[in-house]
Amino acid sequence: MKSQVVILLSVLSAVLARCPADWDHYNDKCFFLSRDNETFAGALKLCEVIGAQYGRVASLATVDDAGTQSHLEGLVTKTSSLEYYIGATDIVHEGTWVWVSNGQTATYTNWGPFQPNNRGGAENCAGITYDIPNGFVGHWTDKPCTKELPYICEMPFRQA
Length: 160
Description:
By secondary structure, this protein is of the alpha+beta class. The protein has one domain: Mannose-Binding Protein A, subunit A (Mannose-Binding Protein A, Chain A, Roll). The chain is 26% helix and 24% strand. It has three helices and eight strands; from the N terminus they run αββαβαβββββ. Strand 4 and strand 5 form a beta hairpin. InterPro entries: C-type_lectin-like, C-type_lectin-like/link_sf, C-type_lectin/snaclec_domain, CTDL_fold. Keywords: Signal.
């Protein structure tokens, strides 16, 4: 009986540890690239709802190191979209970019040329952009949070 319980727990933890279908695994996170366009707030809410369906906490992607940046760039280049929201915003304090998933200041950044520029005083949400003629090859730009874009969600690879 004990061995059956151990096998059952092992199988159950293996199932829970994997990323869901259509999610991509990198390090300790699972990432999902949406096919739909949403505002920043809408994208954040949808990430939370999607994560809850899997019994996990999900948010817009936190890109906190060059490895994660490179991995997401690789995923984005396989799609037809040229820009995706990620989870950084400076809406609370202009010029201080924080991750919506944890409220931490973004210490790693990958801003494109002349970014962030807060054009028109209304660009407070970050996105990964591919605009090669203007020098954006997976670089970040600040966007109006009301612009509708596809987005990248993340959730933990293993449920805590």
